[in-house]
Amino acid sequence: MIPRGVRYALSGISWPLYALLYTPLALVAYYSFAPAPNEAGHSLHAYNVLLHDGAAFTALRRSLILAIGSAITSTALGTLLGYGLCRFRSPNAKGVLAHLPSLIIYTPIIMPSLVFGISELIFFNLVHNATGFLSAGLETMIIAHITFQVPYVALTVYARLAGLDPYLFDAANDLYANGLKSFLYLIIPVVQPAIIGGFLLGITLSIDDFTISFFTAGPGSVTLPIYIYGAIARKGISPEINALGTLMIGTIITLALVHFFITRHRDRAGQFAARGNIT
Amino acid sequence: MSATAQTEQEIEAGRQRLRLWVTSGPGLVWIMIFLLIPSAVLLGIAFFSADDYGAPVLPFSVQPFQQVAGYSLLGWDPGNITIFLRSLGQAGIATLVSAALSYPLVFFILSRPEALRPLLLLFIVLPSWTNQVVRTYAWLELLGPNAPVSWVAHLLHAVPPDLGLAPGSFAVTTGLAYNYLPYMIVPLYASAEKLDWTLVEAGRDLYASGVRLFWHAVFPQTLPGLLSGIIFVAIPAFGDYVVPQLLGGDKALMIGSLIANQFTETPDWPYGAALTIIMLVFTGMGLVGFRILTRKLGGAEEATI
Question: Looking at the keywords, is Zinc present (chain B) (predicted)?
């Protein structure tokens, strides 16, 4: 299809581009092995400092609570949402009302995260002033993170269900499975890869996010990205920040690769298609 | 149709509607309460006056929009228009750069064995899964004053000796292109994967040159992917907050930072809300414009819910 000469040219351009994509990340790792003050060479000094940095660990714990807590809730909401829209929406419904669910689902995806974050900031602020509930902190962050994850989970589950043979549902009906039974014994097992994929996607989105977290956080809910951002703003990039960044990059790359190679055999095409639709 | 059959059908339709609401209701209501209502409130605030602390108060006012246009007690100032144009320019260049890089990458992946392609694609998307702050400040280390790239730029007399390439406009554009490259690659790959190669073969049989082959047989077929990619890159890049904040410094202020400042450092909610409206109007016009263009060009329909 592609002539040999062009293939060589493509390789010649692309491999350096791949290298360029990872150069900044590699540089973060390289600088994290900076020596202790007044010493030369490379060392694990920064990691040692990090190990005794209580604030960093507190931030890590909050980030994990935020990511896992929001992903569990959004997986539940999103799975039901994707399932309901795929199965129970009347195909010949017309008008604004029929498009409303799609409009609602795509809003969090399309909305610039800055507008998203500031809307939440104002909303939580007003609600707190009026009722005393929802003061800015980890709970408001979790609510915001659930909000941006739900559509992605719903789309993942929907894509999986829409790709199924519709006669599967008829077969379940013919065998007298009621709604709940067919949900538990047919839908859940069939959609399971999409649910797991949606959950992992939710965690990834949560860990990736800075902007929305930044505007919904309170003084007592500094998570890792906010911690790093604050440290850079105050005193620039330090070896400790690089060490922390290296650990974060390493973790997410490892998780992604493990996820890729596990799902590759089971459901490669489906997983990739689902993710492709989303990003 | 008999009357009982009719009512039975109605009952079934009612049941179906109930099931729809029980399953999809919670998620939809959640998004409505925690995103649609808050953003409506934000937009509404733009029509209030600001008190001394920047909070919205009555009476209603168009003053926030006058502020956006650059009018204040001190007279007219072109600062905001400069920031708007700069944001458009930065986002535009970042989009062009990511499109220019995506074509060779996408066809490189397609030239590899099929089994390898998902992995090659993964390695392009992977950096974008690391945290936004980390992958952005990483460029500060590559382009900062003491980094090798800045020495080279200095030797070429592109920057003064004590300044690096970051912070500044160049770093912002680079950072935006880096952040949003996967959003260009994925849709472009999706449409290039479905490419009808017989058209290319036909062109080759007619002795078309490589450039003509690409331009007339390949490029039109990838256009739907390219147009989606442009939307996916340009819109978030235009309103990005982290990249200009970390890589821009004072000289490369973008609309995102300007908006954020009205809610953090020097609060003026109505002014910030008015800026947001203008930004969303620009974004919306771009979106609609591209939608029309895509449809005119016979673009692919995306999978929609």
Answer: no
